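Supplementary Text 2. Reproducibility record for the structural model of the 77-residue chain.

All settings were left at their defaults, and a single model was retained for analysis rather than an ensemble. We include the record here because the model underlies the residue-level annotations in Supplementary Table 4.
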Amino acid sequence: MLCEELDFLLMQYLDGSLPSERRAAVRNILDSHPEARTRLRSYQRLDDVFRSKGPMPSIHWEELAKRISAAVTLQRS
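Retained model, structure tokens:
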């Protein structure tokens, strides 16, 4: 498994957005790979820091996607 894949799975595991069947697979990875547990602890600490700073501003994902697409289109022109 690529590090990027593992990182994404660990972040989803941490925030509770991972489907239950995938959650069990990640739990198996965590049980058998010390490095994965270390990465998860790092993400937990980072999450704790963000949460201690107060609520995050809401993100309007649709608007953000439109702006990014427009900027990419402008760069290609």
